[in-house]
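Hi there, hope your week has been kind to you so far. Would you mind checking whether the tokens look sensible for this chain? I owe you a coffee for this, so here goes:
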Amino acid sequence: MSAFERFLDGLDRVKRSGHSKATARCPAHEDKVASLSVSAGLDGRVLVKCHAGCSSEEIVAARGMALADLFERSERLAPRSTSRRSRAGNFADVDRFHHSLLVNEKALARLEGLRGWTREAVERLELGFDGERVVFPIRNWAGELVGLGRYQPNGDRRSEDEPKMKADAGSRRELFPRPEAVEGEPLLLVEGEPDAVRAASLGLSAVAVPGVEGWRPEYRERFRGRRVVVCFDCDAQGREAAARVAADLLGAASE
């Protein structure tokens, strides 16, 4: 049974909408109008929102569960192999980083003020916080974790020679989030992972290329049959890269 199904089991007045969304009575308060929304996010993780204002912690506790129960426990969360203990530890800490951000209301408010990122987008995209930077879990086409990116959203806290996004040693940069897990069209193809979070915060379907030089020709098949809008930065590099990507997508994307 998936984490989504386990969470729904025992809730009152469950009404499903497709395979991955449902509404129900919120167990954390006397709910007469079924104000709880439940959905399965990327890789099966459960997302909960009470429209009456109950927090995720209150909802989960009322179900007799822990926040960790909202996640699928899968071998996909572990690296296939590693010779570095630090890398293995970082991968194992993905859930902890994610939980640290979700319970940090100050950090969530700061991210919305700085970048326009909503809590819902942060939850759905599994972003975390390591105490200094926002952690992006990078997955391949199959949903296997292949890297961690650490992003500093506040330009005032970066030195001139310090990159906005740092990848952990041994990590592989990939499309973010993986297009196989993104529903809806047209699909925006943007430049840089933070732009994908902003687009998701606006309710748009988006996938990010990891930087202006991050596109690889083998990505084209992952967009086969999709309507794609290439939306890179409006500078010379962005325009040139967008033209190359659009040319690559011809014959694969439907439009």
